[in-house]
Amino acid sequence: MDKPGKFSTYQKLVILGLSCLLFTVVLDYMLLPALSGTLLAELQLSTEQFGLISSAYALSAGISALLASGFADRFERKSFLLVFYTGFLAGILLCAISPSFPFLLAARILTGAFGGMMASICFAIVADLFPVSQRGRVTGWIQMAFAASLVIGLPLSLFIASSFSWQMAYGLILSLGILALLMVLVLIRPLKNSSTSFSPPWEHLISNLKKPSYWTVYSANMLIVGGDVIFMTFNAAFLTNNLGLADSQLPYVYGAVGLTSLLAAPIFGKLADRFGKWPVFAFGTLLSTGAVLVYTAGVIQAFEWIILMHAGLYLGINARMVSATALATAVPKKSDRGAFLAIDSSIQQLAGGLAAAVAGFVIFQAADGNLLYYPQIGWLIAILMLLSAGLVLLVSNQVKADIRSKKIKS
After folding, report:
1. pTM of the entire structure?
2. What does the UniProt entry say about where the protein is found (predicted)?
3. From 1.20.59.10, 1.20.58.100, 3.40.50.2300, 1.20.1250.20, which CATH number describes the 10-189+198-409 domain?
4. Hey, which of 72, 281, 310, 409 would disulfide with 323, CB 3.0 to 4.6 Å?
């Protein structure tokens, strides 16, 4: 196994810039389910309507990413990134002024149309600038954007939402997003395409869709995201309505999750580069499956144990996400990276949208406010996690075979 090298100064600046940008994207993604209890009450939404709002972002993002995938390797990556991020911020502005269910639904559709491409463009840049032997650590550091959004961004957003209004929480994201946009403009250099000849966009899209090896990754990530979204969609409402937590206690729960992720993501990144991506993913799957089954059963109601269960669950989720993402970037050819990651993002978003809608139709709110059928949701999540582990093992074996083949040829 190749020994991971040290990052250059410019590589560190790239990691910083992409992390700051993804901080706002992840914060937006996490804020809506965290506001589930607030929005159900203030906008008088049914669980089906909230499920539609949650799925609107994902479905819009999935369609947008699929349409953009044919162009993803044609344009200079930094410019491509800035166009989509500017559109994302326009959607956040509409969320910040949303007065009703139809307006918020439209705002989430626009936000998803642009925000859904952000991660795929960022990781295409990572794949261009970092060798495979460094990508576990890079993914771990960038994954800290997720952690920081939970430790800092989400508690602050929920405080603003409870003290002022939920719309002002989106105003915070917009302000931070403008700063992140300026940072990316300054820190990241334009990235020239390695090829000057390109197939027509639809041909490029179809050629990527026809490759069976790519579909192993697409399928694995579809299951990973589907399980995570089903869990997150009504988690805040489950905490407050079923487990009896106050709204003021939610920031502590998400803060604990974020602190766990902040510490775990870079550690799992290093472990993935040193010992292999699959062993780290397998560990995360066992840990998160056990945690989600115990938690969704509703048998743990003490605040301290709820915190501990979330920490354990997200410890496993981080191990899974870091290792799976690092593996995925090693699968496509360089000329396919942008399209491959855009299609992967599209499928993930569509899976997330379907998962949010499924959660909205499976879970019902009783007259006393309690959410029904939550243990069944836990078993569904566990099944998806175990199925994804089998597919990630296939991806890992595929990457190892490709690396051996390249060494033999050289």
Report:
1. 0.69
2. Cell membrane
3. 1.20.1250.20
4. 281
Say which residue the tokens 């990754």 belong to: 217
